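User: For a benchmark we're assembling, each entry needs the component sequences followed by a predicted structure for the full assembly. Here are entry 17's components. Please fill in the structure.
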Amino acid sequence: MQRRTLMKAALTAVTLTALQTTTALAENPVLKIGFVGVTSGPAAAWGISNQRSMETRAAWINETGGYEIGGTTYDIEIVSFDDQKDPKRAIAGMEKMAQEGIHYVVGPNVDDGAAAVRPVAEASDIMYFPYAFPKELYTAPASNAVLGMIANYQSGPAIYKHLMENEGVKTVAFIAANESDPLSQRDGGVAAAKELGLDVVSDSVTYQVDTTDFTPVLTPILRSRPDLLVLSGVSPANAPQLIRSARELGFEGLISTETAQDAGVLAEGAGDLANGFISVGGASTPELASPMMNEFVDRYTKMFGEYNDESNTKVYALEYILETLKATPEAIDDVSAFKASMDSFSAPNPYMNGDEQLTYVGMTSFGQKRQIAVPLVVNVYQDGAFETMFIARVD
Amino acid sequence: MEQILANGVYLGSQYAMIALGLTLIFALMNVLNFAHGQMYVIGGFVTYTLYGQWGIPFVLALLMSCITLAIIGALIEKYLFAPVIKGSSREESTMLLAAGIAFLLDALILLVFGEKQRGVPKIVDGVFNWDFRVIMPYDRILICVLAILSIVAFIALMQYTKTGRALRALAQDRTAAQLMGVNVDRYSMIGFALGALLAGLVGGLLVTITGINLGMGGPTSIKAFMMVMIGGAGVISGAIWGGFILGFLEAFGLAYLSQYGDITYLLIFVSLMIFLAIRPQGLMGKPWG
Amino acid sequence: MMNLSAKHVLGVAIFLLVIFVGVPLFIAATGRWDFYFTLTSVALLAIASAGVWLTFYIGRINIGQGAFALVGAYVSAILVVKAGWSFWLSLPAAGLFAALVAALLGLPILRLRGVYFAMITLVFTQVATLTALALPITNGAKGITNIPLPSGVSLFGITLIPDFGEIENARMAFYFTACILMVITYATLYRLVNSRLGHLCRSMQQNEELASSIGVNITYIRILIFSISSFFGGIGGAMFGSISQSVYPATFVVKDSVDFMLNCFLGGLGYVFGPMLGTLVIYFGWDLLFEFGKYQLLIYSIILIVVIRFLPDGLLSIRFSKGGKK
Amino acid sequence: MSPLLQVKNVTKKYGGLTANNDISFDVSENEILSVIGPNGAGKSTLFKMISSFVPTTSGEVLYRGERISNLKPHMVARKGVVRTFQETTIFKSMTVRESVVVAQHLRAKASLAGYFWGSKTAQQDVDSFGRYADELLAFLGMTAISDELASNLPQGNLRALGIAIGLATDPKVLLLDEPFAGMNHDETMRMVDLVRSVRDERGVTVMLVEHDMPAVMKISDRIVVLNFGEKIAEGTPSEIQNNEKVIEAYLGSADDEIGM
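Assistant: Structure for entry 17:
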């Protein structure tokens, strides 16, 4: 029985793949870029904002005639794989990318997924751009992962320093979900705060991700009356509830996080109580966003009905891949050429006003350039939108 | 201390409502409904769409949540659970079906309502503050009162109406109920619809406070399972007890164990395991098998 | 060994031929190299599911296999990374440790039945994840990463197992390893079920009181079976840790425990090879539906519901004979 | 010769309720002894204590001078004291023959591992189990139904299957739980003969708990009567028939009996 089913399943698979490759035929040759991340289940928002920003950009490029690399104009196709936040699936996803002949993949979205796909990526010559912070992914001997955003151990110190200097913050408390990523980020944040000379008054309070009422969680932490409450690695779903509960409990200090948030979600979930909430974003605040960024947001909104501010940072990975390929055409199927060009690569940042550059960074944190330079834009939420608090750079 | 008790009552009332629906379905059909949390999420999204998006009055939106879920529940029972229970040689097969339905509802929620966290404007503003000893926003108090009223209404329904009596007879002994002239198929469907309706009602109520997102389904189901187990599976008073106990356990646990940091929840879960190992029938239930 | 009919022998031979020769040839011919990992996963998950199936055989719904897989993954990772053991030694150690945990845990909880046992094992999966987060030896939230690939084993200078880090195609090596383990697991399971222990399990599944009245030490057999089942879980988990070269608290979670259970249900609880088929369909099915993009989960769940609606006793119930093939 | 089975001052309390109070009697080798009493007299509790399915509150049960109360049920079975159940307690999805083969668990010579590897002893065990099952089923007149699934059997056959399972363990003492309940006169008489032959031909001592007075009078060598948890009489059937206490107990609860 199972023999037959296996054979049948295998045959179906072949037919399906065959179909897929034929339907993808277009006038231009196709350049496939992969995405492996979570687009269903509880953490779907992370991956979907990623996938959609890639699809928006790809559709835009294709609509305007394609992307020229080394004299050939390519249509961009995004191949997405839903790993369901399961590291086992993530490996399967990366194998799938290798199968499709893809060398550049965005994702995975979480630490365990990023660590799990490493063997496959290295064996199959895939450069991947995870949104995960473990340093060993980016430090030698690892060399195929490129951090797709700013790590909390980079943004945290910048934010704390700014708040110490400008807001007189002296004491800080941390709260994190009881999961790998947030806990690691909390530990990183605590270390950074201590190094800056801040007084960490509470760092042990955790909550389950499925918590629906944060009052009991926050009560003990707020008793220590910190000047700053850091929501380490907080998911966009939990942030408004945490903010709301803290404010309702009478907390008057500052609240910040080092992850990207969505203004709409904050407005719906916490309303005015979210005013003054500090988070990290890309470059969509009005004074920074370039016309191209605004067009991107428009197209995204048209395509999917609603924009997600998390995409402000997530739009970059694809742009970096394409720009680097443009600068080094042979890298299209030669990952080592890509790696070699990373050290010197530089191109104007199309999403930001001014003469910002796209470059690879990470020397300080990883000892090699394995991070994309996204402008570290620290935002403050005010009445339904983000305002720029300050901008910093990562090296 | 007062704050902890207040938190416990608030958490307990909402948990108890979630557990009630689950335990009702379990008592009637011996089905551990893995999709209960997803039903709760749908209830939340319906209220969000009607009240938050379209501006329909909150009470009406809440009513629509209930009706939607009752219909979904009835359809699921009639076309999926009933035939599978009849056709299967093992009771456990319904667990696979329930899990399949949970996946299906998850997929539908994602496609229909999207992946983002959603919330609605507060229904009441302001915070009750008794000298910083008890702090509780008014909307929470309102929801807590509404939840308790719903629980009372549900108990009254089960005690004093014909439907309620039929459902209780069915829960106690299917065969006997059939002999007594209860239309088993019909009341199974009504019971399932009622259980789903309760899930929808809590979803609709809580969306005003915690908001809603598609990820809340699975964890809610698991939490509801635990409450049902604490109280005793298939026993209505047990579900209420279980809800309040878990509510207070969390409130106290978080207040007194928070200094131990990461192991707070570990301790809560381990104590739960020990409790279940010692008293598998829960507080109110009868021993199994 | 005993009374295997010619038909059975042929069936086994064809099955072995397919997985050890047919699949590699098929992959080489079609170039679908990614199937290696998918099928490796299927084999490993099928091993863990076999354990869940075995606990069903004594009438217990086990939603705790994820915990034992996690235990196995961590034990192997810690032994390899921190104690410098060879992976091949850590593999049985991982299984044995999981079995030991199961024996200790089983003593109090195996008295429970029905949903009660199901729930307590589900809670145990949560406990395992939270413990992994809290313990120093597991590296807490940071997990254990950079686990070296399995090293070679040689006896008297003859290489028995090559070093996975040096061979050309590690995926193929993992595929063969996983398949061999799976074949051993299911052969064991088959023998177990068809030997006296299996008969005693069946008697317990149907009526524990009557079983104990004829002198069956039900406590002992329950614990023995639960340990064996967790041994499988530990082995499956340890192999996974080695393939992904990393273990995190979320490597196996409640969802995995539930999936293992679903594999058994889908394949059919009455059939030894049910969990294998169930795993293949559930895991591979998901991957095949990859082409449907955002409708993947929708289609997947509808198919699942349709199958259970029309084949409530599992896929293998299409065949009416008992016991599976072999 | 000392009695085979001794019930010594056995008492069972559930919370405040006393199910059995200070009950003592002996069972001699090769005897058929019945325990009777009206509903709620504590017969089944006593029965469960003898087979160690429930622990005693005080007192003990001895088999050949060894205590068998408050053990695990399977230990009692291993010593040779085996109980049967009423008809619902069977291996539903096994055939009659399979049930009888499994029930020979106690007679296995090979270890579990031996079976797993298919050792020679195990092979011999399997053969002998099969032979013995066939022989036993022939003895009980069940050969015709040996390949029926237990769940498909009619009530009368289920009772016989229960006894077959019990006998397959090769017991010294067989405890029968209401073997005649729900049977008509003919079936009862056939069962009486069967129980007799079990004792006569296989040398098994039988103790049974029963409602059906005529059958008990017919089958028993001696009878013990319980009422409200107390032993009120013990003796041969004719002694019991003329015992005033017994008559009173049964008349007093005559309604219940009719209700059965």
